Fold these 2 entries.
Entry 1:
Amino acid sequence: MAKSTRELIQAVEKADSADGLLEAVEALAEVRSETAIPTLVEVLGFNNPGAAVAAVDGLIYIGEPAVPYLLDNLDDYNYGARAWAIRVFAGVGDPSALDLLLKAASTDFSLSVRRAAARGLGFINWSKLPPKEILPAQTEVLNTLLSVCNDGEWVVRYAAVVGLQALFETFNPHKSYFVKQILEKLKQIIETDPEIAVRARSQMALREFNNLG
Amino acid sequence: MQQEYEPSDSQSLTVEEAIANLLQKEDLGQRYYASWWLGRFRVKDSAAIDALLIALEDEEDRAPDGGYPLRRNAARALGKLGDSRAVAPLIRCLEFQDFYVREAAAQALEMLGDRSCISALLKLLDGGLAAAKQVPGKPHLVQPYEAIIEALGTLGAAEAIEQIKPFVEHHFPKVQYAAARAMYQLTRNSVYGERLVKALQGNDLQLRRSALIDLGAIGYLPAAEAIALTLAENSMKLISLRGLLEYQLQQDSTNVDLSQESIQLMKLMDGLL
């Protein structure tokens, strides 16, 4: 018989080895239950990367219900846990974490956090914002992504291009201004980025735009 | 392989200071740091190369195990700086007593891409598999086989095929992978690529990472999906897939537009961000 969520939570709490913890977290993440949120959030602070990845995936599956709890329980002093939380916000796209994502994309110390945040900025669920807040927020996202295109790490620039493409594809009341800025940036990257993978990704984004007309 | 020296409190130096620090004799720590710094920041000045070539013959800086830390760092830096004056001195390092100096020299020669080192590298494979034993009391083998074999593969040393092939069966997995990687580069036989794909399923994370790096280095396209599904950090998988993408883009270069294969690779990469 399948285990109840409560039993799965207990298994995480009782795990006494790194591998045991990983398996227990994976099992708990799979049920996608909101009652698992506090336990999964706690795992982010355990300094066990395998288990944290599984917990991040589990929280992203749960989606928006996980965001308020995570925002309330962000540990300012545990850098690792914060970094994992940013990945959850990036994966869920809830605008209540927008400020954290904007800051993380441009200033976080870890390149994998900047990478996740840059991508996540392109996939914000704008319909959750009051209509008059959408344009200022999108403008801020646009400006941040344009500047993240100059990050020192290729993979962060790559993620920023993915973010820009996604931003382009979302609804926007002032589309023409955004389009112009994004297209100019992509063309500039194709001309000047030192990394061929980043140039190719920009080319792919440009192709998608042309297909969309 | 040894971890590269990377100080956490990154000290800011000018090029002139770094070269002066490398040439002085009093402070060994400063010399060691300067040798790393010149490589890290790709300082290609002729004066920097001169100073590193001097460091490559240093006798002062000695590790407790009898090794030569400054020479190791100088060799690594010279590999990054692309100056052909370093080739002959680095070839001489391949016969030096310190294992890690030989390893750093083989890696540097691989990066410099000058084929004149091939016969010296091949000589280190003498005795074949039977000779490739672990040094008693050390974590490493008698020669830096991984570095040697990878260099021969990168340099396209077809004359090395017969000597490399047996190492696919060596008892050190990383040596097996290096041999599979080189054999694939030299023969384009998919048997060797598949061998590395299989290694992605192994139980040891370090070895899975190693196979990811090797597959990226050879740009083995059939591995793309398996790479994306490997149990390892997304950062490593992205680097591996970037290797495949770079290879594919070279194949595409005759076309103006991106190929379907390149687009597929980028879609896999997008999913790992």
Entry 2:
Amino acid sequence: MPPLNYFVVESPDEVGRVAYERVAADVLQDLDLIKVVDRLHIYVDPKVPIFVAAGLLRHMPRAIRIADFANVNRGENEIVLDIGDETYLAPLLQKLWTIYGKENVDQPDRFTVVLPAGVAGEDDLDQLVVADPSETLYKDIIYALQYIAPEGFKVRRQYIRDGKFYYVASEDTLPTDIVETAVVPLFEKMGVTL
Amino acid sequence: MTTLVPVTYKGGVYRHDEIMDLIDDLGGYIVQKHVMAQDVVLQSFVPRDDIEMIRRIAKPLAGEVIEAPLVGTEIAVVSPSLEIHHLPHISCDIAEYLRRSGAKTNMVGLARGFGKRIANLNDEERDVINEHDLAVYVLGNFEECIRQKFPAIRREIRVPIVVTGAPDRETLIRAIDPPAEGYVGGVGRIMHRFKRPEELGKLDELVDEVSRVLDARRDALAKDPLSVFPPRLMAIIEEQIHEVSLLTHPTPVTAQMEGLRVKLPYDSYADDVRSLEVAEGVTVGDIADVTPSRMRNYILIRIKPFSETRILV
């Protein structure tokens, strides 16, 4: 960890600060978000109590197409998809079933999918979108922050839009101006305005 | 009188029954037996003078005998919750490591143990923890939180407590009032598996701390011994009440330092257990309290000390 361009954890408690640095790094790594988050600033003070995380996202991951993980071999009678990476096999099959019908999609073994040329001959299979990781990305980011924050901090406010996100949590009721007083300064430290 | 010491025997399945017979013949007790594929682990008590003999006999079978300080104890690993924040890494790694030293560990995830102001302990959790020999509290990263919440989640816990948390040992000692029996610093909320040498070192430190606390308790017990040695009573129950052998629990009868947990329904079996004859004219009811456990519908046996019963089996 981490190829983040900016990663700071602040806390009045030095031991806790180091521990949270590690926690945040582990969680981002576990959830595979390191490539997605560009900058992250966390402030946590158990005396207030408050947990604030603010950050920026990198460009969104692009949609996954068949060409990204499989070879499309066109024969005279059939088209054979040679799967290189199984990660997206399940959504691929779902997609093919809806387009061509279950009776036309044959899977003789784990790494091979066969379609009759008569049914799918004309289509540009290489470019067929199988999955879009950005759909769940927002949920993943908020989940990661929820996971990093101390568990007892149940009262929270979260925001994610236009590549910026923040997450404020506390054990007590959050004051109405918490975004102005706690979140905006963190974005300023990163050289960004919310 | 021979002193029985807790040891772990690790070896293959092949001819392990000979080792079991040997321990039995030497007057030892097997508290737990695990068979994992081709391996066998026996948690047992054996006479101190005979350890070398067992080692010698086990050698051709590629078996080894290791001193395991926590055999015959039941330890609660208390986590503020069973949420992803505390599981699996810290709580499970700690529980597993204690298990390797011979303890029977139970994970207790509190319903509302998280937070510093809102943390609390309900009566069921309190009673369940109190049924163990020792409780390991797996706490988090901030001194402030530990200071504030710990009194709430230890309320009325009478068993010895070992606390772990991210602040160092001295800070933990300062933060916790009244003092707990043991402290291990540098283990906070960790979101990855314990695998680095310093992390494994912390787990060893925890085992040492737990054994130190339990040894103190054992010393106190030695001054007023129990009317019967729990593993001995365990062997008698396993022999006499055949339903025990039908249970699928990993440890149908769990040995504790001062008693046993029998995993049979209290309502149907408590009287059978009470009237069980331990020795000529002495029943379990004479030397122990047979009570319902707060854990499911199990039976909890608390063996009374010699000073109370004037019986030593």
